[in-house]
Specification:
Blueprint: H1 2-5, H2 22-30, E1 36-37, E2 41-42, H3 43-49, H4 52-57, E3 67-72, H5 76-89, E4 93-97, H6 103-106, H7 118-131, E5 136-143, H8 151-160, E6 165-172, H9 183-192, E7 200-203, H10 212-223, E8 227-232, E9 238-243, H11 250-256, E10 263-266, E11 270-275, H12 280-295, E12 308-309, H13 317-324, E13 338-352, E14 358-364, E15 370-375, E16 391-402, E17 405-415
Parallel strand pairs: 1-3, 2-3, 3-4, 4-5, 5-6, 7-8, 12-13, 15-17
Antiparallel strand pairs: 8-9, 9-11, 10-11, 13-14, 13-16, 14-15, 16-17
């Protein structure tokens, strides 16, 4: 729908507090704006008291359509109720404000403060998407500050949750409206941020060759599609580490792309390759097309095969040594996944990572024996865990070394 609205004119009126009132919107429409947007509407005021100011900025004439109505808030329930109200009022689009840097807004967790916690904002967007039928859009920034520029990850999350369009202000919240805009952030999001694709191909010049295989595996854990991670090699070419998913022959797919590859080798589920830097976009397009044709535009669904249900007390150093006798683990010989039930949380439940996207906790089961556990890309599962109730967990058994001490660590696959 948004694409159709912009066929007449790709320019549209952005929301501006104190500026984009009814007369201003009409002027823009008379000058062929694709569509216009209201000032930011406070969701709490709209749902509970509807102050005169809220009534004023949420009112519009039919001649102002098509119109997007921008909503400001952070509570999933209130934002969902407010979006239904705007939908019933005749809004064509609801735009979520995730970019306002004003301190009186951000200190309440609204505006650009929503970018500080991807998992919590994901729940907000998901709830709003379930409540409304009209298009949902969002305005974001490059991140909260220079140390937390997460626009790429954030935009992927928004699209995963059903956002129809994203507007990016390529400055951080701390920059407000001053300083240089980082336009390369928008380019990177356009180049890499399509969750509807059948593959993931990324390049970062600063990445080390020794970690790109791990990065590719972690990306597959989250997005479950054939993935290639490239880094810069000493000769100026790009070195890539490729990983695939069950039922998708990576080697066969790379054969289809060999015109843009200098060299490659590997097998069905893992490969290494080298391409010329200037051919990155050509290869990325070719690889996506080859994967799409192979899976007939329908990727296999991720499945978790449970090896056995066990109690935590059965996990001992000897048990771990026996498991390791089945190495090497890989796509054709996966590390066993176990199920344990009636688990208790011990201590704090922590969200870790740059965007607090991972989960770290300690668990026990009817004894004082405690195990450390970590779940990559599983921070949204925090709502399944309570200090006052038990939960079930799927996991693999691994080792973790910290400060010279090695101990058994459970790698979480799912929690319920």
């Amino acid at each position: 729908m948004i694409k159709k609205l912009l066929e007449k004119n790709k320019l549209r009126l952005a929301p501006m507090a104190g500026v984009t009132n009814s007369p201003y919107r009409e002027i823009c429409l008379l000058n062929d704006a694709g569509f216009v947007t209201t000032e930011e509407i406070d969701a709490t005021s709209l749902v509970y008291n509807q102050s005169n100011r809220t009534k004023e900025i949420s009112s519009f004439y039919k001649r102002e359509k098509p119109i997007a109505m921008q909503l400001l808030g952070c509570d999933p329930k209130i934002m969902s109720e407010a979006s239904v109200i705007l939908q019933d009022m005749g809004a064509d689009i609801i735009d979520i404000n995730m970019g306002c840097p004003v301190p009186k807004i951000t200190k309440k967790g609204k505006g650009s403060a929503l970018m500080k916690d991807i998992s919590e904002t994901s729940k907000l967007v998901k709830t709003m998407r379930q409540a409304t039928k009209i298009p949902l859009t969002a305005k974001i920034r490059s991140g909260w500050n220079d140390e937390n520029e997460n626009a790429l990850e954030f935009s992927k999350m928004l699209e995963d949750e059903g956002i129809d369009s994203i507007t990016i202000h390529p400055r951080t919240r701390n920059q407000r409206y001053a300083g240089l805009s980082k336009w390369e952030i928008i380019k990177k999001i356009v180049d890499e941020g399509n969750p509807k694709s059948n593959s993931t191909v990324v390049f970062e010049e600063s990445w080390n060759k020794g970690v790109i295989g791990i990065v590719a595996s972690r990306i597959i854990e989250k997005h479950y599609k054939p993935t290639i991670v490239f880094c810069m090699s000493k000769d100026g070419n790009l070195t890539g580490s490729a990983r695939s998913i069950h039922g998708v022959d990576l080697y066969e797919i790379l054969q289809e792309c060999k015109a843009s590859i200098l060299q490659f080798g590997g097998h069905k589920y893992a490969a290494g390759l080298t391409i010329e830097k200037e051919n990155f976009k050509i290869f990325k397009t070719s690889f996506e097309k080859a994967v799409k044709n192979y899976v007939k535009n329908k990727l296999p669904v991720k499945e978790i095969k449970i090896e056995s249900k066990i109690i935590l007390n059965s996990i001992t150093p000897k048990f771990f040594r026996i498991l390791n006798q089945f190495e090497p683990f890989g796509p054709e010989n996966k590390r066993p996944i176990f199920l344990s039930e009636n688990l208790n949380l011990k201590g704090e439940l922590n969200k870790i990572g740059k965007n607090r996207e991972h989960l770290k906790l300690s668990v026990s089961q009817e004894s004082d024996k405690t195990f450390s556990a970590i779940g990559f890309w599983l921070s949204e599962k925090a709502t399944s865990i309570s200090p006052n109730s038990t939960f079930s967990m799927l996991y693999t058994i691994d080792e973790n070394t910290w400060n010279g001490i090695t101990s058994i660590q459970l790698k979480i696959k799912d929690i319920k």
